[in-house]
Amino acid sequence: MTGTVKIGFSDILVGYMRVSSVDERQSVYLQRDALVQAGVDERHIFQDKASGARDDRPGLKKCLSYIKSGDTLVVWKLDRLGRSLPHLLTIIEDLKAKSVAFRSLTEQMDTTTSHGELMFSLFGALAQYERALIHERVMAGLAAAKRRGRIGGRPPSISQERLDMALDYLNKGESKLSVARRLTIPRTTLLNTLERIGWQPRSESEEGDGDVDERTAENNEKKPLNRRRRQA
């Protein structure tokens, strides 16, 4: 008897239903009939045609904007409302903050009863436990990668073999532009990689002169072509 004690909400029921393109026709009738049989007025039923993973559900947004304090939101099944357990609990928490009750017909969950409140609390504890596990796995993965000398994030764009070749050429005095061309590496990628590993040229002046000489050579290569174009 304790599980059926009403906590105190009005009898205004608002329904929400979501259908996917796969089972659209059958699911529409099934959900609508169940909501109407539960006492929801058809004029107060909101609907979305979208997969459960999608965030853009205009019908749900309209439903949550329409519903008022003292009302009860009714769904055919829990997975019709939330795309995940944390998302579902967030919606129900927002409803509770607005003094709106929640009912799921299939799972027989009703937050207007003490039994429904207990179920909701258990779901909340499970969601918090799930978030803690995910965080723990992420931190463990980062720690394992760090022990192996890796840093979390995107992998380097240059293989270790090509990086070793680039460092060898650079240490012999070649400019960064020349090395990037020789190894067909984008110059910005090479510069970012060198900055990431903390490489410094043996002589800043030599490195700078090398880049200047390389650019000068590049310009000199273009000059005869420019002359021919002007003569033409």
From TrEMBL:
A Gene Ontology biological process term: DNA integration
This protein's record includes keyword DNA-binding: yes
Listed Basic and acidic residues bias regions: 213-224
Active site: 20
GO molecular function: DNA binding; DNA strand exchange activity
Boundaries of every Resolvase/invertase-type recombinase catalytic domain copy: 12-149
Pfam family, one: Resolvase
Keyword DNA-binding part of the UniProt annotation: yes
Keywords: DNA integration, DNA invertase, DNA recombination, DNA-binding
Region (Disordered): 197-232
Family to which the UniProt record says this protein belongs: Belongs to the site-specific recombinase resolvase family.
Name listed for the protein in its UniProt record: Resolvase/invertase-type recombinase catalytic domain-containing protein
Annotated source species: Gluconobacter oxydans NBRC 3293
Taxonomy of the source species: Bacteria, Pseudomonadati, Pseudomonadota, Alphaproteobacteria, Acetobacterales
